[in-house]
Amino acid sequence: MNSKITDKIISLSLLFSFFITPLLFFTQTHDQFELPKVTFLVLLALPLLLLGLKEKSHTPTRPLALFLLLFLLSQGIACLPGVSLSWVTSLWGDYENFAGFSTLVTYVIWYFILSRYLNAERIEKIFYFVSLSAFFSSLYAIGQHFQFDFIQWNPDSISATREFAALGNPNFLSAYIAMAIPLFLTLSFRPQEDRVQTQPVFSPIFSLFLILGAGFLFLGTAKSQLFLHLDPSNNFSFITRILGLLFLSLFCINASRFQYLPVKIFVTTILILGLLSTASRGGFLAALLGAGTWFYLAFQNQKWKEMIRQRWALVSKFQLAFSSALLGVFVLFFGWSFIQRLFDSIIHASQSLATSRLHIWRPAVMMIKANPIFGTGLDTFKIAFPFYSGIEFNQIDGLFTSSRMAHNELLQIASTSGLLGLASYLLLLAAFVFYWLKAYQNSGAYERWYLMAVLSSALAYQVQNFFSFGVAAINLVWFFLLASLTYFGKKEDNTPSSRVSLYFQKTVITSLIALILLFPLRRLAADIAYGRGDIYSSAVKNRDAQTSSDALIYYSNTEINYLSRAVNLFPWDVKYNLYKGLAYEQRGRLDTTQALEWFPEALTCYQKSIQMSPANAYYHNDEGRVYSVLSAFNREYLEKAEQAYGRAVYWSPASPYFILNWVTSLEKVGKTEEARQQTAKSFSIDAAFTSKILAQMAFERYQAGDKATAFRYVNEAAGNTASPEAFYCRGLIYLSEKQKKKALVDFIYTQNLHPDPYKNASVQHLDDLIRECQK
Fold it and tell me: For residue 198, with 0-12 CB atoms within 10 Å meaning exposed, 13-18 middle and 19 or more buried, which class applies?
């Protein structure tokens, strides 16, 4: 292949990856953000790896790469079956995170690709495209803030109150903007030693391109079409979005890498507003420290300090006053909620941490103490968390929620890969600082200018990750910073090519290409099938009264077919087997005449999930639930149900829901005393929830004809005198037993506890019931 064509392919592939990854989403998959981004990076690495096969010499391994490989090795050890709670999860990553070993290998591949192909020109261009992507992401977030969004996102994937653009989470967007700001500053103020220090002339046509681009994109949103009474057809939306992207591209092509003063001011404003739209305190701190470090380093050089002062002097007092006033108005209007949240966090720092991070960090520390050397296994934090968490996290985030990450990179690494993994990561960070200092001391002014951005952006990444964690869009930039440091720090290498080293390198590349061709597209296709199956599952769960039984059976069949396809395409993801089991269980409840056909299928799926992830309490609870249903047909399953619920409680000892399920099962097998002990334990963990669930259980037992157990449950629930559900339920049972006086006492007590019963879905129609008792 012609060398110029090869060089063009390399440059376009590199620039395309950094520009598209943060903006990429795919609504056809169930996971609309992270999985498409990771798959995109894997597939885009393919042509670059193929070009590596044509190389006639091996790439020397730099010292920084050795520390990176050491970290990779420590994470690989944390994936081994004897170490990880779920080696399958550690290998492929937990669903939604996709932060397993395969993803880490992808980042390391990109590091070596970048180390091979980076040069000064490409580094500067990547700076530009990262900044440009952050600008577009911020612009999109502003549109989301004002409800101008042309995408119907998966409700499970987004935050309804904070903006996220196409990164899937406000914290990820804020981290990306924080990392991009030092790169943007480097381009905006870069020295022009060979040019006259004058401000480039800005043409108004650039503003027109920007206005037209943003205008056409807004026309592609449902809200603008409704407001302007436009045709909301797919063709119209498609055309307006294409035109919007075209004009925005023309603006960016002519922006001259942010050298025009109006462009600098406008982009800076958009980045600030985009950052505020996320309401992320960690991202704000990361941006502040990253930009502050950049300016501190820049001002250490007198020539640069003077150059920045001259650039600043080009802004007239009127322009400065007008821009500041305009920005102030926008910040107060747009970011006031964030400003209030920020100051409240500073004033009440301990309370803020207690409701956002400490209830995750404390269990993480316990996980480290229990598994100090190798951890629980790479990306198994969500699996291990319920065993250590207590009830505090669930009282804040929801009873059926497990924290997916430690929300602190150091704690995350230490808890999932042990102190061995943490030590290797700290060595990598220490090596980064050491080689940065070495490169900065030995470099000229040009290299130092870009090394400032490398350190400042890396600092922003680490600060944000102290409160959050990395995903594809920001991790790619982090590994780019590592590779950039390798480029600036390397010397001429005259080491002759080793034939053994060359053959080994090409063998590794060939193996990676084979893996890329085999797995990523199958995984993406599996997630598309999973997403479609989930749509039909929602149609069954959220059915209305007019939905016919035939329609429900059709929805259920289609759901099972799609989920079976997902499992067949990628059987190594635990989630697909789990949801296939839920689909079978759902079908068994729809088609009770064929229950003995459907529930065993569900049981088989749950047991496959347990085989892949034996420490997941939720899967054992699902298994116990199916055994309980099957026990109606064969009482031998009662013992198995009790054992399964017991395992669920073992892995999640602070969940009153799992405990009460076990209580029911214990009583069925005659272990009454143990059941009472577990009930007392549940009350000690969360009395309000326990009372509510016991009241529901009592009503179910009463309807099933077991009055003795029903009264026992409801009396135990009423032991919590602050539970309106307990007294309301007991009142209903008394009323059904024609004991109106006792029912009236409980209803009046409920009314005193809950003056407005209509705010509580479990305690309604109370006035009518009281009147009925008084007759």
Answer: exposed
Strands (E), 251-313: none
Which residue in this structure is represented by tokens 């249903």? 629
Rounded to 5°, angle at Cα 280 from 274 and 285: 95
Structure tokens at 465: 């990750």
168, 137 contact by CB (below 8 A): no
- Give me the amino acid identity at 568: N
**CA angle 265–266–270, rounded 5-degree value:** 120
DSSP output for 47-90: HHHHHHTT-SSPPPPPHHHHHHHHHHHHHHHTTSTTT-S-HHHH
Measured distance CA(668)–CA(233) in Å, rounded: 58
Which regions of the chain are under pLDDT 50?
194-202, 492-500, 758
CA distances from 395 to 589, 621, 686, 763 (A): 30, 20, 9, 21
User: Position of tokens 């061995």?
Assistant: 420
Three-class DSSP category at 342 = helix
* Tally of residues, the chain: 775
Burial 41-52 (b: 16+ CB within 10 A, else e): bbebbeebbebb
Contact 461, 474 (CB under 8 A): yes
Per-residue pLDDT tens over the stretch 736-773: 888 888 888 888 888 787 665 545 555 567 777 887 88
Residue 156 DSSP code = G
Find where tokens 């099962």 sit.
Answer: 665
Interatomic CA distance for residues 125 and 576, integer angstroms: 40
How far apart are the C-alpha atoms of 742 and 746, rounded to whole Å?
Answer: 7
Question: CB neighbours (10 Å) of residue 15?
Answer: 17
Cβ atoms of 421 and 71 within 8 Å: the answer is yes
In single-letter form, the type of residue at position 470 comes to G
Q: Give the orientation angle of helix 549-569 with respect to helix 574-590, to 10 degrees.
A: 160
The full 3-state SS of 364-408, as one line of letters, equals HHHHHHHCCCCCCCCCCHHHHHHHHCCCHHHHHHCCCCCCCCCCC
Task: Give the span between the Cα atoms of 301 and 324, in whole angstroms.
Answer: 27
Side chain identity, residue 167: L
CB burial of 446-485 (b: ≥16 within 10 Å; e: otherwise) equals ebbbbbbbbbbbbbbbbbbbbbbbbbbbbbbbbbbbbbbb
Look up the pTM and report it.
0.87
The rounded distance, in Å, linking the Cα atoms of 48 and 555 is 44
Contact 744, 730 (CB under 8 A): no
DSSP element (H, E) containing 721: none
Structure tokens at 219: 């026309």
> Helix (H, G, I), strand (E, B), or coil: what is residue 98?
coil
Question: How far apart (Å, rounded) are the C-alpha atoms in residues 550 and 556?
Answer: 10
Single out the residue of 275, 262, 131, 153 nearest to residue 209, CA to CA: 262
**726, 714 in Cβ contact below 8 A?**
yes
Q: Which of 300, 289, 305, 288 is nearest to 440 (CA)?
A: 300
| Digit-coded pLDDT (tens) for 549-599 | 888 899 999 999 999 999 999 999 999 999 999 999 999 988 888 888 899
Cβ contact 46:513 at 8 Å = yes
pLDDT of residue 195: 40
